[in-house]
Amino acid sequence: MNALWPFLAPVLYLLCAGSALALAGWLLASPNDRGLAAKPVAGALILTAGWALFFIGLGSSAIGTAMALSVANIAWFWALYRFFAHDGRDRIGAIRSVLIVLGFLELLLIALLVLQLIYSEGGSPARSFLSFEMALRALASIGGLVLVHNLYVGASNAARESLRWPAAGLTVLWLYDLNTATVAYLSAAHPDTLLTLRVVPVIVTTALLAIGSLRDGANLRFGPSRYVAFRSFSLLIIGAYLLAMVLVAQGLAYAGGEFARLMQLGFVALAAAAALLVMPSSRLRGWLRVILSKHLFQHRYDYRAEWLRFTDTMGRAGSGASPLRERIVQAVADVTDSPSGLLLVPREDGGLALDTRWQWPQVEVPAEALSTAGVRFFETSRFIVDLDDLRAGRVEAVPAAAHPSWLMDELSAWAMVPLVHYDRLVGIVVLAKPPLTRRLDWEDFDLLGVVGRQLASYLAEQASQDALGEALRFDEFNRRIAFVMHDIKNLASQLSLLARNAERHADKPEFRADMLITLRNSADKLQALLARLGRYGAQGNEALQSVAIEDVLLRLAERYRGQHEVAVVDLTPCMVRVDREGLEQALVHLVQNAIEASDELSPVILRQSCHEGRAVLEIIDSGIGMSAEFVRTRLFKPFHSSKPGGFGIGAFEARELIRGMGGQVDVESREGLGTRFRIALPLAGTAEQLRSLKTTQIEVAQ
Q1: Where are the transmembrane segments (predicted)?
Q2: Is 90 exceeded by the pLDDT of residue 271?
Q3: Which of 350-354, 382-386, 611-615 has the lowest mean pLDDT?
Q4: Closest CA to 65 of 80, 48, 45
Q5: Coil, strand, or helix at residue 119?
Q6: What angle do CA 111, 169, 146 make, to 5 degrees?
């Protein structure tokens, strides 16, 4: 420590000087806001910084350093006097007298130091100077401590809050000086170590003064509870309303007349009816919140209350809690007092689709709610879109793909909040207009952005859980199918062997022929079953061929004649390149589902058209319909069946078969209204061009 101290001491004194000058500059920047003692304290801090610089240049026992200390103490006594002016006690005569005496003592010290500079040869006079100097410093320190005690103890409770920190700082400073002077007087020698360490209490004093200045500024800020302010303002309005009622009623009574009492009763009845209509209005409550937040509070939102409400909404659990995705929409809507909202999530083939409605059943949302280009914009910009600004032309940086026409035409739609997780868009919340519509500002954007990022993590976690569960179910399914295929393969081998043995050993030719035919047919069926079980995925091994799509639809309608009405309308003859058996199988799955969801008297409609190189098939029913959540999470997921005993792979197999032919399946459904499956298949010529292009790309890559 002794070796490090010569290097550490200058650093501490530089820190002391720098912090004192910084605090002084901050106090002088706005002295009127820091109290009556701001300028004197700043001056004392500047002189204390000068004492620290003298110490670095001259040392602890130098006369110049001691003189700088006395000058700084005079400044601190003046600052202490101004602290008494905080509550008007600076006019007390005794306080002035003591401060004058303390200032005179410090001036005597300066004069004594000048004499010591003249008679600095050492010996008895030098020791006498030292003893007298330390006695004066001890007296000055004792006087300062007495005044600080009176400053704090004699102050009112309100004033003590402001005087606590400067009183503590000055106490630390003068208590250390008193101890140093006592040790020096008793030892009759300069206590160089104590004089050097004086930088520590000076730094502590500076820190306490800084804390006191900051707390004083904070205590002047009005920060009432938003809940209390809103309730108080509401009660004030109700009181004013009741007072107005009384005044008007008394005025009617004062007017007198034959119908005065009748007029009083009529006015009271009308006023009560108006109160019942207006007071519960959500629009009125929204107006009150906006007015109070705008004119009474520094920020629009009470962030503590908002975060507690958000946590409560997302943390709900149990059978009575809403689904997670509905709570996600509600959590965003609660921030802006929006009455309803939508959640759009990514589709498997790009873009966004409707996932969840929260109290907004009337809005029409297409199958592709947002295109892939719009998704890219939100992923890169994380921009929160104010749709009213777009409609008014106040914002031009948002591309058309980010605000589709169906959303712009829905005038009740207000804002789009992206949910981005690790630079990947996992959803968008569309908010309806609140009862009191306003423009979104920077504070709305900041809070909605933070909430959106937090909610994106909820969605990403749920997606990971779903993917893990589906992978486990597929693993179990694959294990079961492996055993089934193994057993069927063994059976097919045994039947083939039996057929060969019967061909060699059968006695009767007629029986042998029938047996061979039966066994061979059984073997062929088993082999076909094996081929079908292995044909889940992209395309299987079936060859594609050109097929007249209208023939497939007419044949399908004929198949259900006598069971349920299947009507074919708007046929446009065209050729598609598909696996005919696979296409029929996919259509059978979808038509059968439509029949089971429909009433017996409600027909299933098959519609077909050709445009832009594709044949479009539509299977339409007016049955019970499906929710957006069911379509997203269960319709095309294996092992989820709404029918007792169902295996839940019909819709999944239909979509995989269509995809294997280069097609696409979209679904639009509304609960209670019905469902529309839309299948798009490439025409024969288009399919050949795509196949040629893929072949060329593979050859170039190789």
Answers
A1: 6-29, 41-60, 66-85, 97-119, 134-153, 165-188, 194-212, 233-253, 259-279
A2: no
A3: 611-615
A4: 48
A5: coil
A6: 60
Pick the range with the lowest mean pLDDT from 40-54, 180-194, 211-225, 368-382.
Answer: 211-225
List, for residues 85-102, the tens digit of each pLDDT value: 766 666 666 677 878 888
Strands (E), 412-456: 413-421, 424-432
User: Which secondary structure element, helix H or strand E, spans residue 577, and what is its range?
Assistant: strand 575-578
Of 414, 422, 416, whose CA–CA distance to 453 is shortest?
422
Rounded to two decimals, the pTM is 0.49
Q: Which overall architecture, per CATH, does domain 5-219 show? A: Up-down Bundle (1.20)
More reliable by pLDDT, 169 or 33: 169
Tokens of 375: 């998704």
**CB pairs under 8 A, 24+ apart, for 4-9?**
5/196, 9/196, 9/199
Pair 344, 369: CB distance under 8 Å: yes
Q: DSSP class of residue 85?
A: G
Residue 640: what are its φ and ψ, rounded to 5°?
-115, 105
Per-residue confidence band for 62, with pLDDT thresholds at 50, 70 and 90: confident
- The kind and range of the H/E element at 312 are helix 303-314
The number of helices, as runs of H, and strands, as runs of E, in the chain is 23, 12
309 has pLDDT over 50:
yes
The CATH class that applies to domain 545-701 reads: alpha beta
If one compares 326 and 2, the residue with the highest pLDDT of the two is: 326
**Length of the chain, please?**
702
- Upper half-sphere CA count for residue 203 (Cβ side, 13 Å): 14
Q: Give the SS3 label for residue 416.
A: strand
Alpha-helix residue ranges (DSSP H) falling in 543-635: 549-559, 580-597, 628-630
Contact call for residues 672 and 624 (beta carbons, < 8 A):
yes
Cα(333)–Cα(327) distance, integer angstroms = 10
Count of other CB atoms within 10 angstroms of residue 66: 23
CA distances from 617 to 101, 369, 642 (A): 105, 21, 25
Q: CA angle, corner 141, sides to 140 and 145, nearest 5?
A: 120
256 is written with which tokens?
A: 């007198």
The lowest-confidence range among 79-88, 114-123, 172-181 is: 114-123
Q: What are the angstrom distances between the C-alpha of 88 and each of 40, 75, 154? A: 17, 20, 11
Residue 128: per-residue pLDDT: 63
Asked if residue 323 lies in contact with residue 447, where contact means CB atoms within 8 angstroms, the answer is no
User: Residue 430: beta bridge partners?
Assistant: 342, 416
Q: What is the mean pLDDT of residues 530-558?
A: 72
Question: CA angle, 330 as apex, 327 and 336 as ends, to 5°?
Answer: 155
**Tokens 């920060």 found at:** 223
Q: Rounded distance, CA 469 to CA 688, Å?
A: 39
**Which residues have C-beta within 8 Å of that of residue 252, sequence separation ≥ 6?**
260, 263, 264, 267
Token match 């103490």: residue? 73
**What's the maximum distance between 2 C-alpha atoms anywhere in the chain?**
150
SS3 state at 195 = helix
As a dihedral over the C-alpha atoms of residue 304, residue 307, residue 313, residue 316, rounded to 10 degrees, the angle is: -90
CATH topology of domain 305-462: Beta-Lactamase (3.30.450)
Beta strand 566-569 with 604-611 is: parallel
Which tokens in the block code for residue 443?
């504070």
* Cα atoms in the 13 Å half-sphere on the side-chain side of 185: 15
Distance from C-alpha of 585 to C-alpha of 186, rounded to nearest angstrom: 110
Both structure tokens of 562 = 């006598």
